[in-house]
Amino acid sequence: MYAITGITGKVGGVAARALLSEGQRVRAVVRNADKGRLWSELGCEVAIAEVEDAAALTRAFTDVTGVFILPPSNFDPKPGFPEARAVISAVRQALDATRPAKVVCLSTIGAQALQSNLLSQRTLMEEGLSRLPLPVTFLRPAWFMENVGWDIDRAREQGVISCFLQPLDKAMPMVATADVGRVAAELLRQDWSGKRVVELEGPDWVTQNEIASELAKALHRPVRAEAVPRESWGAIFRAQGMRDPIPRIQMLDGFNEGWIKFEGNGATLIKGNTSLLEVIQNLVG
Ligand SMILES: NC(=O)c1ccc[n+]([C@@H]2O[C@H](COP(=O)([O-])OP(=O)(O)OC[C@H]3O[C@@H](n4cnc5c(N)ncnc54)[C@H](OP(=O)(O)O)[C@@H]3O)[C@@H](O)[C@H]2O)c1
User: Fold this and answer.
1) Which residue in 7, 212, 236, 281 has its CB near the most CB atoms, within 10 A?
2) What residues does 160 pair with on adjacent strands?
3) CA nearest neighbour of 12 among 111, 154, 20
4) How many CB atoms are closer than 10 A to CB 178?
5) Which ligand 1 atom minimizes the distance to the CA of 109?
6) For position 179, what pLDDT does the model report?
7) What top-level class would CATH report for the domain 2-284?
8) Which residue, 276, 14, 7, 283, is CA-closest to 150?
9) How close is the Cα of 5 to the center of ligand 1, in Å?
10) Quick one: pLDDT at residue 191?
């Protein structure tokens, strides 16, 4: 039995379906009974837990072989990342109490970076779970290709995408969530000891100009990439409702300046096979 958190989202959903298709038993960890109904119909056990609730997670992780931890995204954390720390504390307590045979935790490219930024939330998660006496794999995917979803309306209507990753001709590793979920399921089926890091990218590195040209193919209209001036980012993010855009800006700086990158250094690097065009066609369709 594998307990899957984040199962109603993109990565967790793919991971769970991959395990089910291999005849594995899955416990769907969801936030309420409504969200569990589909998974129950697909043959899963259902456990109700918020990822900040140690007692509920302990029930959800009891008597399973493997656990998949998907820390929820928080683009606008409070200073010192208290929200992420609450999740880490609850997950640690639940894993310590239940001691599953193995854990796969979704982390991120650049979790090893020393400079503070949005992704430091995952640095803290890796530090917290590394202290557990359990086999833990940290799966560090590249930038998700599905982030293009934020650009589709403007591309369709105005033929432009606004780019924070810069310069526009700089290729960066990206990966489809279909590959992230599939690899997460494969890792859960493996046996290993101690801590390991698996880094995951797509078939090719991608530039912002290439994203525009793939969007143009999928939308059957010209689309160009436009760099958003860095000095305007703070005001843009605040206008979108963010209280503190600094961690997000630091993360974008990290990608653009190259200090958010794959660590290498003994980590396994895996390549996914889903192309950017496939992801964009799905998003557009
Ligand atoms: N975007 C990127 O470029 C990128 C790159 C590398 C790594 N990542 C990592 O990928 C993860 C996001 O994966 P995704 O795109 O699959 O996410 P997603 O589609 O947004 O799904 C999020 C999942 O988390 C659940 N969730 C949210 N808050 C929760 C809470 N308080 N308690 C319990 N469950 C909660 C959601 O459940 P509900 O249905 O109940 O809301 C949903 O199942 C994050 O950890 C992020 O750091 C992202």
Assistant:
1) 7
2) 224
3) 20
4) 21
5) 6
6) 98
7) alpha beta
8) 283
9) 9
10) 97
pLDDT digit string, tens, across residues 16-31: 999 999 999 999 999 9
Query: Is 0.70 topped by the overall pTM?
Result: yes
Please compute, for residue 42, the number of CA atoms within 13 A of its CA located in the half-sphere on the CB side. Answer: 22
Q: Ligand 1 — pocket residues by CB below 6 A?
A: 6-12, 31, 35, 50-52, 70-73, 106, 108, 122, 141, 143-144, 147, 177
The residue type at 219: L
Per-residue pLDDT reduced to its tens digit, 201-229:
999 999 999 999 999 999 999 999 999 99
> Which residue's CA lies nearest to atom 45 of ligand 1?
71
**pLDDT at residue 265, as a whole number:** 87
CA 49, CA 34: separation in Å to the nearest integer? 13
Q: Ligand 1 centre and the CA of 9: distance in Å?
A: 6
Nearest 5°: CA angle at 167, between 274 and 240? 80
The CA distance from 10 to 31, in Å, is: 15
Closest by Cα among 131, 107, 130 to 120: 107
Mean pLDDT of 227-238: 98
Whose Cα sits closest to atom 36 in ligand 1? Answer: 6
Is 128:195 a contact under the CB 8 Å cutoff? no
- To test the pocket of ligand 1, the residue of 73, 108, 129, 143 to mutate (highest count of ligand atoms within 8 Å of its CB) is 73
221 Cα to the center of ligand 1, angstroms:
32
